[in-house]
Amino acid sequence: MILAAQDFPNVLPHDGEAFFIKQFYGKEQADLLAARLLDGLAWQEETLLIFGRWVKAPRLMCWYGDPGAAYRYSGVDHPPLPWNSVLKELKAGVEAVCGQDFNSVLANLYRNGRDSMGCHADNEPELGFRPVIASLSFGAGRRFKFHHKNQRLTVNLVLEHGDLLVMQGDTQHQWLHSVPKSQCELLPRINLTFRKIMI
Ligand SMILES: O=C(O)CCC(=O)C(=O)O
Ligand SMILES: [Mn+2]
């Protein structure tokens, strides 16, 4: 049987489409994948342009993809690093369940509970209209918050080790999302968002 993202619960009401697949990777496999990602990716501390000021991103990041799949976010151009073996394996896994191919991935490493991701939508023009984004999480569980752009609607999830969240349809046009800071002493967390850049 072939799994399809649409067979899993849609966690968003109204005009959102976000399918949540708990433990897409089981604990043992997720442990091995997390160790390979932690060791094998070129994690960088980046400086981002936020409201006209350059600030250190509150997490480590790196961008991988096909040649030419450059991505501009927060005022900075990111040429892609070439795919490595663990990212290629994960890309094939999420492509099978999403029924579409991806040509790039943004990797984020949240070192502890103080690292975070502000409220945003992945709606840059190079992602095209109604992008499909596949988000894999490893390591510490973290709250993931959706806010509707025009209505008082919020949806809170906890993304845990091995979970997959597929955002598609109008999600990036109608909703924002964030990973808030936590007061707790948390272990590191890795998140990968597979995307298709219009080259
Ligand atoms: O860490 C996450 O779960 C979200 C990451 C994210 O939203 C992004 O990379 O655009
Ligand atoms: Mn995002």
Could you characterize what this model shows?
- The chain is α+β, with helices and mostly antiparallel strands.
- It has one domain: Sandwich (Jelly Rolls), CATH 2.60.120.
- It is 16% helix and 40% strand.
- The protein has helices at residues 27-40, 85-98, 171-174, and strands at 17-21, 44-50, 53-65, 71-73, 76-78, 104-110, 117-120, 133-139, 142-148, 154-159, 164-168, 175-179, 189-195.
- It is globular.
- It starts with 16 loop residues before the first strand and ends with a strand.
- The model has no long low-confidence stretch (mean pLDDT 96).
- The protein binds 2-oxoglutaric acid and manganese (II) ion.
- Residues 106, 108, 117, 122, 135, 137, 144, 159, 177, 179, 191, 193 line the site of 2-oxoglutaric acid (AKG).
Q: What is the averaged pLDDT score?
A: 96
Characterize the overall form: globular
Task: Give the number of helices.
Answer: 3
**CATH level-4 homologous superfamily:** Alpha-ketoglutarate-dependent dioxygenase AlkB-like
Report the bound ligands by name, code or SMILES. 2-oxoglutaric acid, manganese (II) ion
Features:
binds 2-oxoglutaric acid; alpha+beta; binds manganese (II) ion; globular; 16% helix; 199 residues
Q: What's the gist of this structure?
A:
With 199 residues, the chain is α+β, with helices and mostly antiparallel strands. It has three helices and 13 strands. The strands form three sheets. A seven-stranded antiparallel sheet has the order 1-11-8-13-6-3-2. Strands 7-12-9-10 form a four-stranded antiparallel sheet.
